[in-house]
Amino acid sequence: MPGQNFQIAIDGPVAAGKGTISRLVADQLGFLYVDTGAMYRVATLLAVRAGTNLENEPAIVKLIRLSNIQMRNPSHSEKDGRLTTVFLDGEDISWDIRTESISSKVSIVAALPKVREVLVKKQQIIAGTQNVVMEGRDITYRVLPDADLKIYLTGSDIVRAKRRHLQALQRGEFVSYDDVFEQLKIRDKNDTERVNDPLQIVDDAWVIDTSDLKIPQVVRLIVDKVRVMMDR
Ligand code: DC
Known about the structure:
232 residues; alpha/beta; Rossmann fold; five-stranded parallel sheet; three-stranded antiparallel sheet; 10 helices; 15% strand; binds 2'-deoxycytidine-5'-monophosphate
């Protein structure tokens, strides 16, 4: 059963707009925004920095357990386009986890069952005590199966690749569109075909295709629905 706090669970493929939309919905409702993908990215960064093989599950779990990972809303001085601020042992790694180098490796780490187990527990603890908008790939059925509102955000692969490409260019990463598209297809395949908790649409999810919608339209749809639900 849902607890006293209100939980919005959002899943969907890469670049469907989950981060931006979740952040805005959380701001408008006064909820906490939790980017669970950032946690898998931190695990990947830890492995890369330590020179650990990306399939060495025990070593990566150990690195996570020994690290102090903190996530919070960006402060005033951190308003540089980031959606969330992430610290690893006190170091601000909010952008280090967003490079194409980490993006191309993260689905390997996210496929490790013990890594998922440790991170899912952390996510459930966070969502247990406050109103949250939590987004990722397994939130609607694994992390918060009793969430008050479950949403599956999606979009065509071309629209999503264009968005990702633009974001990379805006950050000064000069990657080609074709490379971004290819990476996106690989990540979609890894996310939907992995053995442990593959990306899926649950029966009671509200499916929103963002290909032809502007961000404020999607935000409005969700916020209006939650307000009606909370008033009941
Ligand atoms: O949303 P993102 O691109 O930051 O996610 C990074 C990776 O982590 C992506 O490959 C999917 C994976 N992920 C996951 O397996 N489960 C989640 N709850 C969130 C992200």
